[in-house]
Amino acid sequence: MFTDSQQDVLWALMHDKYHAIAPGQRNPDMDNLAPHYEQPTKPLFRGLTMHDREQIMAMDRRTNTFTLNSYTSFSESRPVAEAFGRDSQIVLVLKKPPRAFCYHHHMKKLIIDAGDSECDAETRIDLLAGLEREVEWILPFGLTYKATSARRVLSGDTEVALFYCETL
To answer: What are 80-112's pLDDT values in tens digits?
Structure first.
């Protein structure tokens, strides 16, 4: 289903997303996953990094648009996204997400199918639990987003800004 180099990237995403899909850098193996894209049926959430926050703050105020110059990881879980975005205190919300790579589904299959020499039982259980918790999707490189509304909510004892967006 996946080439060896695509599998290498998918495994790398488990441990070090920043180097596997670094901002501003396209990855041919990630681009070649496009045939595996699916339509998410639930809203997706992304807790912004401080780097993402800078790109949002540079939003074109006339059109309310911005581009994240990277592949972007979103979750079906708002609490997970809020935890990832605790430094920026901003969460993007896509009520109607575009087609994307269902990372948690495909990675779960790779982990289950991995031989014992690649992944021992304890590690396998931990990785699967993390995938189930995050329910992660990866959106294509360089999408442009349009902010349609925003509101502040409490996440624990911290106020978080939810930016509702659509992709263009």
So the answer is: 999 999 999 999 999 999 999 999 999 999 999
Strands (E) in the chain, as ranges, are: 44-47, 65-67, 72-75, 90-94, 136-139, 144-155, 158-167
Range of the domain at 91: 4-167
Q: What is the pTM of this model?
A: 0.93
Handedness of CA 18, 21, 23, 27 (dihedral sign): positive
| Nearest to 55, CA basis, from 67, 38, 46, 40 | 67
Burial status of residue 27 (CB atoms within 10 A of its CB: 0-12, 13-18, 19 or more) = middle
Q: Per residue in 12-48, pLDDT tens?
A: 998 877 777 888 889 898 999 999 999 999 999 999 9
Ordered alpha helix ranges (H), 17-166: 17-20, 28-31, 50-57, 78-84, 103-113, 121-134
Give the chain's domain count. 1
Q: At a CB cut-off of 8 Å and minimum separation 6, what does 101 contact?
A: 30, 33, 36, 37, 38, 137, 138, 139
CATH of the domain at 33: 3.90.176.10
Tokens of 164: 């509702």
